[in-house]
Automatic annotation (TrEMBL):
Pfam families: Ig_CFAP47. InterPro entries: Ig_CFAP47. GO terms for biological process: sperm axoneme assembly. One of its GO terms (cellular component) is cilium. This is CFA47 protein. Residues 87-222 form the CFAP47-like immunoglobulin-like domain. It comes from Calyptomena viridis (Lesser green broadbill).
Length: 252
């Protein structure tokens, strides 16, 4: 459903020729849709492939061939599963600003539109549940639980190495309004930069049934306060005055 599959029949293919099969995806809800593209190939001269398919043969083989009356193989089928995952338009940029060597906590509200409770798909088993992805369960007096995964993604490994230890996100509140099909997630974002920087990241929220929302985030660290004032008192004209002070590195 919700796929437009072009039914191609009677197409003649030369050896090693390529065939492009167009698939158009037009989702009407933020949930995963599944379909299957089946390619059925038969010999142009109408002859069959000779092969003995016994009851002990592989089940996948029996499923992927069409048998003729004489017991030969009339056609071979290739099956391509298609998963359509809707992605919401990119949301408004969220800016988190903090002075270097300081720490800021900021509440950020994320709105997820198009969450339809009856669109839940219980057989989705390929969801990524790696350690850096956290699960959210949002309920609002309904018997069904709306489950989400969220992760902060970075544009490069270099940006990840700069931001990952400086940024923390924690879910404070969640609310699901089934009537308006909107889920509200409120995060507490902690940003503690150690030097001036300007880096981007993306908060990716995925409904376990397939919908994806992306929220761009910009982390800005401004110049820090002056650490200290060093006073050097001259001991005389054309004579050197020396002041010593210590610098401590926060990293190796």
């Amino acid at each position: 459903y919700h796929y437009n599959l072009f039914h191609l029949t009677g197409i003649r293919l030369a050896p090693k020729e390529k065939l492009n099969i167009p698939v158009l995806f037009m989702p009407d809800a933020m949930t995963m849709y599944k379909a299957e593209v089946v390619v059925h190939v038969m010999k142009e001269n109408g002859e069959n492939w000779t092969y003995d398919i016994s009851t002990e043969s592989n089940k996948d083989l029996n499923r992927n061939v069409s048998l003729a009356e004489n017991g030969g193989i009339q056609g071979i089928l290739w099956r391509y599963p298609v998963h359509g995952i809707p992605e919401a338009p990119q949301q408004k940029l969220v800016v988190v600003r903090c002075q270097a060597k300081q720490r800021v906590e900021q509440r950020v509200e994320m709105l997820l539109f198009g969450v339809v409770p009856h669109a839940r798909n219980s057989d989705m088993a390929n969801t990524d549940t790696s350690a850096n992805i956290q699960e959210v369960q949002a309920t609002d007096g309904f018997s069904e639980t709306v489950e989400f995964l969220y992760e902060l993604q970075y544009q490069s490994n270099e940006i990840r190495s700069q931001l990952e230890s400086l940024v923390g996100m924690h879910l404070l509140e969640k609310e699901w309004d089934a009537e308006s099909e909107i889920v509200t997630l409120i995060f507490n974002v902690v940003f503690a930069p150690n030097k001036p920087m300007r880096n981007e990241a993306t908060l990716v929220v995925q409904w376990v049934t397939g919908g994806v929302w992306k929220f761009p985030m910009l982390f800005i660290a401004t110049e820090p306060e002056v650490d200290d004032v060093i006073n050097i008192v001259a001991v005389g004209l054309n004579k050197e005055s020396i002041v010593g002070f210590k610098l401590t590195s926060q990293t190796r």
